[in-house]
Amino acid sequence: MSDTKNIMAFEDIVNQRYATKVFDGRKIEQEKIKKLLDMIRHAPSSYNVQPWKIVVIEDESVKEKLSEATYNQPQIKSSSHVLVFCVVKDLFSHIDRLEQLMIRKGTDKTKAKSYTDTIRDFGKELTQEEKISWTQRQTYLALGNALNGAKSLGFDSCPMEGFDPDRYSQILNLPENLIPIVVCAIGYALDKPKQKIRFPEEEIFLPIKYSPTKIKSEGG
Fold first, then answer.
1. Cβ contacts of residue 164 below 8 Å, gap of 6+?
2. What sections of the chain are H helices per DSSP?
């Protein structure tokens, strides 16, 4: 029975969450912020690399500057907090840190090195552009936790790609190793959600169409 309740609760979260356009300016309780950040921290990622850093902004003067670099969209200044999701450019240095973390958490040194060497081998096959693309995809998994986590804690969110990454880097004085790739404004909504418009199931979930005879002949 408890499992059913948990499933229904998550169903409500994903159905009620929406991209809030204007917040009411109220501050989210610090305890809720801590819970949200922990949810984000536990997001999945390929190889468990977690190739992201997240800047948490509450200061109104900083939000004022970021608003200009977000084309004056109202979500930034009206939000309680702004989360700036950044990808790590130096993937191999990050893998080294993961190896050390695994060892500190009790993983055998040999096993930790063997595991992280597998990730290094994967990374060596990628161009720098491909590395950034790969880390960006991982970081969007963390963004998903932020969006659904916010609704689960009783407040709202808006993911935003419409911003100037270079200006954000300057305003936040980000190290060279980080690239801001998506912003998530959070707070209590002032606007109302519109009807969700989603493609029907039959257009999204496709049946497998194959010919057993063709597969048999192709397989020899």
1. 69, 70, 71
2. 2-16, 30-41, 60-68, 74-78, 91-104, 109-124, 128-152, 165-171, 201-204, 212-218
**What are the strands of the beta sheet with 178-187, ordered from one edge?**
52-57, 81-88, 178-187, 156-160
- Nearest 5°: CA angle at 50, between 184 and 83? 15
* CATH code where residue 77 lies: 3.40.109.10
- Give residue 180's domain range: 2-218
Mean pLDDT over residues 64-87, rounded? 98
Mean confidence (pLDDT) of the chain: 93
Residues in the chain: 220
Phi, psi of 51 (to 5 degrees): -85, 50
Instruction: Report the alpha-carbon distance of residue 49 to residue 77 in Å, rounded.
Output: 33
Look up residue 215 and give its DSSP letter: H
b/e map 136-167, b = 16+ CB within 10 Å: bebbeebbebbbbbbbbbebbbbbbeebebee
* Residue for token pair 């004022």: 64
First vs last C-alpha separation in the chain: 50
Q: What is the pLDDT of residue 214?
A: 59
Q: Count how many domains the chain has.
A: 1
Beta bridge partners of 56: 83
Coil, helix or strand at residue 220: coil
Distance of alpha carbon 182 from alpha carbon 85, whole angstroms: 5
pTM above 0.85? yes
